[in-house]
UniProtKB/TrEMBL annotation, chain A:
NCBIfam families: acid_CoA_mut_C. It holds the Pfam family B12-binding. It comes from the Bacteria. This is Cobalamin B12-binding domain-containing protein. Gene3D superfamilies: Cobalamin-binding domain. PROSITE patterns: B12_BINDING (PS51332). It comes from Pontivivens nitratireducens. The keyword tRNA processing does not apply. Residues 5-131 form the B12-binding domain. Keywords: Cobalamin, Cobalt, Isomerase, Metal-binding. PANTHER family: COENZYME B12-DEPENDENT MUTASE, METHYLMALONYL-COA MUTASE, MITOCHONDRIAL-RELATED. One of its GO terms (molecular function) is isomerase activity. The keyword Metal-binding applies. CDD domains: MM_CoA_mut_B12_BD.
Length: 131, 293
């Protein structure tokens, strides 16, 4: 794997308190060699963007189960632009209905990873985004 | 807070990444030899799960409270996986109360294989933060046992935390990291045994070393942290009186040189695997020749 020295932020925005999926992804990324920063629960888009900038991450994953993925992803991506950090790639994981994929991609989301995908394929996609 | 300009977070964090991943020659070019004003450095160390991150969460609020410092940087080191080399950097989970403070810059670091509780380029990163003009730096080590005392060499004030349930492990810590402590904090002081732990530590350390090491108690809700804040300032004042700035600069320069030399040797061995061939003497001569080249 080529994720060595890559820095990836796994963030939990919004109000849902379930982070098993976020932790599974974080561990799989670590096992692929990445340095994974985990925010903990219930962070605002402002906080997440500040963390992404402070930590100088290559990629930012939003784990969202609350259904507000469109609003939260758009808000984070807009704030990254304002902070001159639009080069940080954003992906979204969680329960995302397929009819929302188009909207998310149009907003600038680079990857959408649902619970139907295997962990291996998620890591492989992240790996190809970052190489 | 004064009316200091806001931190240029993007620039600072980019600079840290560059230095963290650069070969020694580039590091030297980046941090230069400018005589920067050394920042006051506080080290926080102790066993895994002992409450280091929670303590920093509370301590930073005290250090950055109105009328005190303008800017403070925290470097928090977590261990890398010896298998994959990757790392989970989770110190922020317990640092939510300080997430929005404008004067704070917080960076999580992987130990990247180092075994001394730090990471091998931590001095480069500390120096870079000083170049960026931070007033104060807090360094959180990896959760350590007794022997990871290197942090002592890179900070001004070393705070060693001990949870009340540390039990017998304190016996072994007595020779080692506890001897290096400037301040000891018994965390989770609402747990049974905390007061006993504090008085035992106080008795043993102050009797044996002949110096007076404050032993404080703190709780996760922030109780006791104002005392720690004052104890840190008191220690800072005592070292300003007893140690000249040249002494600090000299001993840090020595540590920094050793760290750079270690990395240069690592780089040379990785780039030239043939160095290790033949007798030990031949390998050694080849290594020195490679370093000189």
């Amino acid at each position: 794997m080529t994720l060595e020295k890559k820095r990836i932020l796994i963030a939990k925005p919004g109000l849902d308190g379930h982070d098993v999926g976020a932790k599974v992804i974080a561990l799989a990324l670590r096992d692929a060699g990445a340095e994974v920063i985990y925010t903990g629960l219930r962070r605002s888009p402002e906080q997440i963007v500040r963390i992404a900038v402070d930590e100088d991450v290559d990629m930012l994953g939003l784990s969202i189960l609350s259904g507000s993925h469109k609003e939260l992803a758009a808000s984070v991506i807009e704030r990254l632009r304002i902070e001159d950090a639009a080069d940080i790639k954003v992906f979204v994981g969680g329960t995302i209905p397929e009819e929302d994929f188009e909207t998310l991609r149009a907003a600038g989301v680079r990857g959408i990873y649902t619970s139907e995908m295997t962990i291996e394929s998620v890591i492989a996609e992240i790996d190809s985004q970052l190489s | 807070m004064s009316d200091a300009p806001p931190l240029d977070r993007r620039r600072i964090s980019r600079a840290l990444t560059r230095v963290a991943n650069a070969p020694v020659a580039e590091v030297l070019a980046a941090i230069g030899d400018s005589k920067v004003q050394p920042a006051f450095r506080i080290g926080i160390t102790g066993p895994p799960g002992g409450g280091k991150s929670s303590l920093i969460n509370a301590l930073v609020q005290e250090r950055l409270s109105p009328g005190t410092l303008d800017t403070l940087a925290v470097l928090a080191i977590d261990p890398s996986s010896p298998v994959s080399g990757g790392a989970i950097l989770g110190d922020r989970i317990r640092m939510d109360a300080i997430a929005d403070l404008p004067g704070l810059y917080l960076r999580s670091l992987s130990s990247r294989g180092a075994r001394n509780g730090l990471c091998d380029n931590v001095v480069d990163l500390l120096t870079l933060l000083e170049v960026q003009g931070f007033d104060e730096i807090i360094l959180e080590t990896v959760g350590v046992g007794q022997s990871e005392v290197a942090v002592h060499e890179v900070v001004d004030t070393l705070v060693v935390i001990v949870p009340p349930d540390a039990g017998d492990s304190v016996q072994t810590m007595k020779s080692g990291i506890l001897e290096m402590a400037d301040i000891i904090v018994v965390t989770k002081a609402d747990m049974p045994g905390a007061r006993r732990m504090a008085s035992d530590l106080s008795a043993v350390l102050n009797e044996r070393s002949g110096r007076s090491v404050p032993v404080l108690q703190t709780q996760a809700d922030g109780r006791g942290v104002a005392d720690l804040d004052r104890a840190i300032d008191a220690h800072r004042n005592s070292i300003v009186e007893n140690r000249t700035e040249e002494t600090t600069r000299e001993s840090r320069r020595r540590y920094h040189l050793r760290a750079l030399a270690d990395r240069q040797v690592e780089e040379a061995l990785r780039a030239n695997p043939e160095i290790t061939e033949g007798t030990l003497k031949a390998s050694y001569d080849r290594l020195l020749a490679t370093l000189r080249a």
